[in-house]
User: What shape does this take?
Amino acid sequence: MSLSDSEIIESIRGGAPRHFAVLIDRYKDRGLTLALHMLKNREDAEEALQDAFIRAYNALNRFEGASKFSTWFYRILYNVCLTRLERRKRQVPESSYDDEQFRPGISSTGAFLLETEFERKNMVDYLKGIINEMPAKYSTILSLFYFQDLSHNEICEITKLSLGTVKVHLFRARAILQRRLVNEFQKETAPSI
Amino acid sequence: MNEVNMEHPTEITLQEYSDRMLDRATEAALDDHVRLCEECALKLRAFRLLDEKLREIPPDRAEKDFTRRVMASLHIDPAPAVYWSIAKYLAPVFSLILVLSIVFAVFYFSGAIQGPENRQSNGRIWAVGEYAGNMATGGIKALNAWGGKYFSFAFAKENFNLTIFLLIVFAGVAVLDKYFLVPMMRKRS
Assistant: This one.
């Protein structure tokens, strides 16, 4: 039977630091997914993840267990990635989707197209591609909700955003996905002249 | 045209309905609406399909040696391999058995606990044991001769021979343990 996060943390505090490897193994893949959705670059994401684990280890004595370890760790990782994003923004301004250009919603035709075309083999890869092109603020919330399986309230705790903002970002992220998918399906199903 | 309130919910409300984020009253009202409004039902199905597909996406995989790299950055020895975890506990047991076997062999073949004249043949197992015993006796005799040649001081008094021989063996085991086995175990675990 595998140990719970809090049992592992207790054993690390009790003098078995090597047990931290279990926590790394447990959260490295999901952590990398979040970092990738925020930073959009594998090398940066791995560095940020490593940095987050080091910070988490050094701050482990300050972890009081009020929230889950995963929430606490994702908060550290989110902050590390945010700092990197801000540093990067100062160098290269973000150029993708603008809020002004944002047009949410899909038509009934679009919804029908989604329903009929969804069972495509490469859908997972295709969705990953769209998420990767999304602005970080949307893909981050999407990642926390779907890939880390967190509730709206936990996302608020990690990002320190209001519940309303989290809901809007999540809605917009999904709307971007829907519109991009509908556009793609429309292109493919249009009769060739 | 049906009789229900056909004022469509906003897409964000419909999405929250799909996420089961709405209060019970609003959810009940939407249940009714979606049952009768084909347009909203279609959108809801599309939202749920997208949800399903998003949850199917596997997480990205970190590099194989990622954990080792982080542990190295923290200057923590990584977790030992399974066989070393077992070997760590087996090694002291084997050492103890080895030392006890040497002590027993020395006492036995020197006649301290049972004289060779008292031995009686007791079938094939005893014969094998006797053969092994003879081999060991030969080895110990050779060791004695070697010890007598180079460590004659230790054999000066008949009564102290065995004691000194055992002290040398224990000292050898201790040195081997301290400078070879333990550092090797520490390095691997």
Q: What stands out?
A: The radius of gyration of chain A is 19 Å. The CA atoms of residues 118 and 181 of chain A lie 9 Å apart. Chain A touches chain B through 48 residues (CB under 8 Å). Chain A is about 70% helix and 0% strand.
